Amino acid sequence: MSLLQINKLFISFGGIRALAGVDFHVEDGEILTVIGPNGSGKTTLFNCISGVYRPTGGEIFFRGESILGLSPDTIAAKGIARTFQNLRLFMHMDVLDNLLLGRHVKFRKNPLQAVLRIRTEEVKHREFVEEIIDFLDLQAYRQARVSDCPYGVQKRVELGRALALEPTLLLLDEPIAGLTSEEKDETAYRITEIRGRFKTTILLVEHDLRIASRLADRMVAFESGLEIAQGTPEEVQRDPNVIRAYLGEESEQKRN
Amino acid sequence: MDLIESYREELQLIRKPWTRAWVGAVVSALILLPFYAPQHLTYIATIICIYAVGVQGQNILIGYTGQISFGQAGFLAIGAYTFGHLIRVGIPWPLALLGAGITAGLFGLIVGFPSLRLKGPYLAIATMGFGIAVYQIFANSELLSGGRMGLAIPKISPIFGISKITFNYYFNFAIALLFTLASYNIISSYMGRAFIAIRDNDIAAEVVGVNLTRYKLLSFAISSFYTGVQGGLYSLLIGHLEPNMFTFMETITLFVAVIIGGLASVEGSIMGAAFVILVPQLLSSYRELVPVIFGVTILIILIFEPMGLSGRWMKTRLYLRNWPFR
């Protein structure tokens, strides 16, 4: 049984069919990369899996259990964490609080302890958060307001916030977009490291094909809300459908 | 040098010795207030303490959770009348006060429901409707409001042989202090973090696992609990209730206190409460000018110091800490 199974997922906004019956699955422990041109439905897919959008039709099974139509916080509690393409951080809080919020579902919540300032839970979870801070090299920014941090750091904070949930499945929406080439390599390295260290299955959207194929065990290509190719990175990149989607068809003139 | 040795140490309410010293000084100055201040001033300080409770509650809702509400007068009225009726049937004041808070809190839950769908100005209008409706109900129901004569509230007699004014001050000061501590504790807990997360980015909050329904309603309930307690304390101090005390102007007063004091700041809430009480006192011979002053101050604050009095205070502290460097 695969970790995530998506059957005939369908969603439309007005007249636009953002997902037109997507079929694919994610195996336990793998890194699966989703590629595709702009507007092909990659982010919409993420929004459906994490519960931000409610699909019009189809099925999503996580560990054999349907998660279709559940609210985002219920899905998070089941162990699916995600990052966003355009950062969605809590800008007025410091890095530490952002990471602790990532751990929100793990807290034992007792309002009385909150009012009386009994902070046993806080201390317990702080230890794990510190582990993430070390892993992502955020020590210097621990108490910095997120809005004051440079973009590369904000990107890491968002990754850290998702990791703090100790997710079974991690959805990364363009984790290296907008980074410098050094930061890109560093993040790519970290993504492979995450799998080993946190035992996480990773589904990621990426435009940089060089890094995408380096990271991926398997690749899925999307076009206009449909998956057009699946397989190893090499297979997908050689697929004529994928080449057509990215580069377009050879012109009539040239062919003659 | 500021070294922290354990996570627990970092989670203390007041960590630095210097902060401890000046907070201690301020609190002791307030405790000794009746001994050096004229009676009139002690009375005003009492009202500020009462308002500080409600403004803190509203700041949890407006400043921390980012839900604009204009229903404060409604919760205030519900708290005040619940307290009044409970104490008139002979229930002891601590229970009556708790009852006032809980009743207002329950109404807060109900009023919070639109917040699950409505945002910003739309929510403001919906809550405003609630505030005005409550006023109308009390104004038109003699059974609830005690008729034309109003509702008389029996006062509690001073203990330890101190004067009435001193007793009222200590009573309300102690309660305000308790609520202030609770505010600090709530906002630094998982709950406060969830509130701020909803304000900063509700979609991200949901995705990390914050249940929007639960925490928005919780914020409404907590803030109305505070405001309900304010109503109870106020009715006990005044000893008399009539619906005209809970018009829309009262909502504006609390809202102004939150904005001028500074959004998302407990200290700011107290400063804001002091502001809205002191200004009408200082201008007692020009009462009609008070709304004008409030309006102009809000404009000035929003343009020059969006973080309110607490923001100014933070900047002053930073300046003093770095002095003589800048």
TrEMBL record, chain A:
Presence of the UniProt keyword Protein biosynthesis in the record: no
GO molecular function: ATP binding; ATP hydrolysis activity
Any GO CC annotation of this UniProt entry: plasma membrane
Residues annotated as domain ABC transporter: 4-249
Domain of life: Bacteria
Pfam families hit by this protein: ABC_tran, BCA_ABC_TP_C
InterPro entries for the chain: AAA+_ATPase, ABC_AA/LPS_Transport, ABC_transporter-like_ATP-bd, BCA_ABC_TP_C, P-loop_NTPase
The keyword Transport appears for this protein: yes
Protein name (record): ABC transporter ATP-binding protein
Species classification: Bacteria, Pseudomonadati, Thermodesulfobacteriota, Desulfomonilia, Desulfomonilales
Automatic annotation (TrEMBL), chain B:
A GO MF label: branched-chain amino acid transmembrane transporter activity
CDD domains documented for this protein: TM_PBP1_LivM_like
Segments passing through the bilayer: 21-37, 43-61, 68-87, 93-113, 120-138, 169-187, 252-277, 289-309
Taxonomic superkingdom: Bacteria
UniProt keywords, alphabetically: Cell membrane, Membrane, Transmembrane, Transmembrane helix
Location within or outside the cell: Cell membrane
Topology class, membrane: Multi-pass membrane protein
Classification via Pfam families: BPD_transp_2 (PF02653)
Primary location class: membrane
This protein's name: Branched-chain amino acid ABC transporter permease
Organism: Desulfomonile tiedjei
